[in-house]
Structure formats: C-alpha cells, structure tokens
Amino acid sequence: MSSRFKNISKKTWCLLMGWLILGLGLALIFGGSSVQAVAVPEDIRIGVVWDQPQIDFGVSQGNYTLEDRNTGRTILSTVSSGTLIRAQLDPNQALLEVYRYLGTSGEDNLESNSLSVDASGKWEFCGSFKGPLRLEIGSGREASGALNLVKCQAARYRGQLEIRVNVLGNGITAINELPLEEYLYGVVAREMSGGWPLEALRAQAVIARTYAARNLSKHITEGYNLCGGTNCQAYGGYDREAEACTRAVKDTSGQVVVDKQGQLAITLYHSNSGGYTENNVNVFGADLDYLQGRPDLYSLGHGLSDWSYSTVINGVNQQGELGLREALFFENPQVGMIESLELIKYPSGRVQTVIIKDNRGQTIKMTGSRFAELFNPKFAVVNANRVMSRMFDIDTDATMAIQNGSGGKEIRHGGIKSLAVLSGEGLKSGVVKTESSYYVVGAQGKYCRPAHPTTLEIKGHGWGHGVGLSQWGAFGMAQQGFKYEEILSFYYPGTRLISSRT
What is the pTM of this model? Predict the structure, then answer.
C-alpha cells in the first residue's frame, strides 16, 4: 500500500473505497439506461483546515472521545464541552504532538484563527501519535438525536472531527465527518443568503447535494471527499447555518438532478451570469447538452450584473494600482508601449482571447480570464468597481469606429498606425508614424486620437464562470414566482429531478 494511505484507518479506507466503487458502478449501470433513483451516501468527509503546523480543536457541545486510529488507543476517554486540545506537527517524524489545555478556555473567538485561552493556563502533553486522531461522539449520544458540536480553529461543526498529517507530511489537515444532509445546512447558507426567497434556496440545496454526490472522489487521495472552500463548495459549518437554508435542505431531502442517461448531472453554478450563461465546453472542456449558453434576463439588475473599472495603460492609476503595461511586466518584462488591443469573443459576449500589440512588434495573447485577473487577481476583491468576470468590453482614449474592407463597422482600440488614409485623388497612403496624436474626421465631425492608448476602461457584466445556474438568476426567478423545479429546468434543460431515496 502506498505510504500516503498508511495512516488511513481500516474503517475509513473501506468507506472511501466504497464511495469510489459506488461511483464507478453507477457509471456502468446508468450508462445506457434511464433510472428513477441514484445512490447518495449518508455521510460525507469535508476538509475544513489544510496544511497547518498547528490546529486547536475541542468540543462545543456533547461528549466525545479522542482516539488514535492508527493504534486504536484512547487518548482522552471524555472530551466534553469546553475542552481544548492542540495538535502540533513534529515535521522530523511526521507525528502529531497532542496537548490538552488545563486552564479555563474562553468563548470561541470567531474573529481570530485560534481558540482563546487565559494567560494562567497550562498545556499538558498527552503524547505523540502517528494518527489520524479522531474526535468521536461518545456512546449513545448520536442515537439520542442530541446536537453534538466539535470546534476547530474557532469554528463549530456538527458530527465528528479527524486530525491527520497531510499526504506530504508537512502540515496538519482537519476533516469534519457528518451526515451529508447536515453538511448541506452549512453549504446552502454560505452559497446564498438566508434572506433569499425559499424557492431559490431549494434550488441551491438540490444542486449542492447533486454536486457533492457526484464529486465524492475529488480529494480521496487526501483522505476526504470535498474541501470546505470555493474550489469545491463553500461550507461554513454550524455557525453559518440559517433557518431558511436548513428548511430548504429538508424540503428537498434526497433530491438530485440527473441527465438523460440517469447519471448525476454536473450541476455547476456561479454568482451572476451577467445576462447570458456560458457553454460548458468554453470553460471546462466537455460539451454537455444541458450546459449550453443561453440568454438569462433573470440575472439582470441584481448583484454585480454590471460593473466597471478604470485604469491606465502605462504607469499606475490614481489609486496606485498597476496599469496594463506594468501588470504585463510580470509575465513579459520586454513588453513595449501598448499600441492596440483586440477582443475575440464567444457568442455569450465573454472574452475568449485578448490580443495586445506593442511598439516593439510583439503580439501578446491571453485568455479573457487571465486579462481580467491582471486587475483583480483570483477575483478576490468583490465590488462593482472591479473586474469581476470575462464578460466585458473595453474603451480607450484611442478607440474609434472604422469601416473595414468588407464595408462593415469595426471598433479599433488603438492601432492607428496600421491604418491608411484615402487622399482626394483616391490614393491610399500610410499614416505618418512620428506624430503623438492624429485628427480623425467621422460622421460626428473631427476629433483627436492619440497614437498610443493611455487610458483603459473595462465595463462588464456578471460574476463567476457563467456555466450552469446563476444564483442571482435563481433569486430573480424566485421573486417572479417560479418554483425551484422550474428554476432547475431553466438552467439545466433536459435534466430531471429525482429522489435518491429508495
């Protein structure tokens, strides 16, 4: 067995392999036939903290035991509310050093990255363990229906907690294991607001359940099914739960979306489509009949359906942020003065490719997403004064509309030196290349344009990749009285909503 799997307990290993075999079996069984039910697991394992040198954890409510799953040894037979435990990595031996806090632990400090303790407290060393360590609900507590909560790095979670050395041996990972339906309580409330219409929340619950069931193997080599971040589905645990979101999960219990072959659908979703969803093939590569771009007027007028960002071509803008040329330096230190920009778009209006030409004869090509992230890396800053997606148009102080050789209208963002002029005698001649600006005579009269663009305005629509369900679109549909089944049918046409309960 590979060394990366040696620390997985026999029970957990069987559970993970069962999920993998189940997924493969479903693919074979449903490949050519329609079915009325699919299997969705009862429990799920979520990575909630990754690759940390130290993790503080404990119990917020209920009684637990702490065990070393590698040896079966009980480290602490009773871990009750208020108990605080610390696991530190011994990087030399890839062991977990375990300490129990003997002072009075304070209330959870949700603004920090650790649990608060008083200065007079002491830490008792409990030993070094290969792990994984498991904080497990005490006998009889789970069956009684009582609420049991663990805490990890100041956040509270339902179910149980596992602490393990990561597969590289250079950090600690915390895994929350709990019923899948209870996991969804903390997903729907992170992905949508609890104040949103109930039908939108129900739609989110169904697609989150479908996504989880379809992607159980995403992080299987790391010992869990899904992570709690946006790379999988945002999961906030118990502290982020909201009553309306929990109700939406219960109202749709066990319901999932399947395609025409009866397989779990790829229920991708995003924040706002900007008025037009995107073909999956243009983003993630697979051409799926139920993930085709289409007009989506329900998203308009809601969160970040419109945004704009102004900057400069060279230097820094008034906010001290890098202009286009300076941003390009990180990838191409030889970039010259920017002469022109051109956008190649998909039918949805999203930018496929940006073509940039400089005065050194270089042509720089990049995806629309990469260009957008030059001004908002990973789209980390979220507001209407930032670049939020690759659905955009640009404008510069050198932009002009010209008539091309086919007699059609063409928008040029710079590149005036590549144009020609028609003299009164009908002769074409090139534009003089030494001038810093030029006068252009058009239908609206004469105006001046610089030889090189100096300003850049990016106006766009939507937030996210644009594939599948638009969350703000679901909000808009629910406001107009659509049921969650209709919302799902609009964003995943040709799919079916079924129950996974047998």
Answer: 0.83
